[in-house]
Amino acid sequence: MATTAVNLPIHEHPLFPIARCIHGECDGCHVNGFMYSGYFCNEPYCYVWFHKECGEAPAEINHSSHPQHPLLLTSDSRDGPCDLCGQKLLPPCYSCSTCEFKVDLTCGMKPSSPAIEHPLCHDHPVVLLKIREEKVPCELCKESIEGPSYSCLECDVYFHVDCVHLSKECEFVTEGACIDIPRVININRHDHRIYLTLHLGAGYSSCGVCHKNVNQYKGAFSCSACPNYAVHTTCAVRWDVWDGVELEGIPEIIEDISPFKVVGDNLISHFSHEEHPLKLHKDDVIHDESIRCAACVHPVGFDSIYCCEKCPFMLHEKCANLPMKKRLVFGTRPFTLIKETTRSTNCKLCEILSDGFTYRSRDWSDVDVHCGSLNEPLVHDGHEHPLYFAKKENHFCDGCQNRIEKIWHRNDGHPLTLCCGEKENASVCTRRFLTSHARTNLRLWGNTNFG
């Protein structure tokens, strides 16, 4: 059944009702969060979303804080802060055509009475105060108050205007915010859907996102396919973890993410080279160091490889098995494996130029297969503890994870194996070779002959 658009004063184009929960910023109140109902614009290049109450804002209101004149809804920019909350004024807003009084949409839609006789947030009446010069903490959310506030003159405590209105609306306040958690979601730390449970129960040790302890007596997200996987509710709905889509009531579609089809004994048809089959050759075979894998562009080395017997196309066995689609900690949307054949690209994470395969999503482009293959936790020979992804800049690598574990060197007749600080075995060759470039990047690491 087709959805009918409606014309509303808040926007110049017709708006369509939102059919399901989304996560984003409302273009009315400019609050970033969940929208279970509301409106969106379907015009090309006009990406706006509104909460239901914001989208249905009237064109004219009478506000108790400015009884002299009516206030008109406008999308024009206005200089200065909101005359009630003191925050930066963003369109749309309400303004007086006679004088310079102006309020943002939130303050205009929730008229502030000079006094509230029976507030749900406090035992005594509270009165509205003008902007204070000194900062005081809000009794509900404990955050500093910088604009107008409600105050109990008897107790000498203060409240944000929004916190008072919040308690008036939902009668349940926790840390100054309504509980508004989705029920079924996908996150970028796990391959399966996770489900909200109000009582986690025993058998769970740590959160799959922050890796801190989880409380079995509190609510959390858990996975029906992985018995011991759980995520704190606050961690699961973080903007850098969740894609913002509520999946409750939406059937789960199991996708085929295999990159190849088996067409014979040790023969596959790979998506990147469908014109010819690829044959598997096991490891311990010495390959020419100039021959490189088409996916990771590293030398094929000593690894098992798939190679085409009709043209010079080769893939490491592990690269041939890279999934066509996967979730990565670097973004919230699924990433798709792409065979890049037209140009060289810089990986958006390590910034290394490559003409190999890349992972790409709607929000991210060109993550090379080295970075795209990293999973949490990363267990590395160079460190005794598991490693986790952290968004930090200007940090040096303590040993490049993508270094090849075994190489040939022109000055030695034996293969050199990467060591992580352990004592070398010099029974076969007494010389240790390490280029100045490797010394700079690997610090205490080196390539050593282990015989």
From TrEMBL:
Gene Ontology molecular function, alphabetical: zinc ion binding
Keyword list, A-Z: Metal-binding, Repeat, Zinc, Zinc-finger
InterPro entries, A to Z: DC1 (IPR004146), PKC_DAG/PE (IPR002219), Vacuole_Formation_Reg (IPR053192), Znf_PHD (IPR001965)
PROSITE patterns from the UniProt entry: ZF_DAG_PE_2
Domain Phorbol-ester/DAG-type residue range list: 123-170
Keyword Metal-binding carried by entry: yes
Zinc-finger is among the record's keywords: yes
Protein name: Zinc finger PHD-type
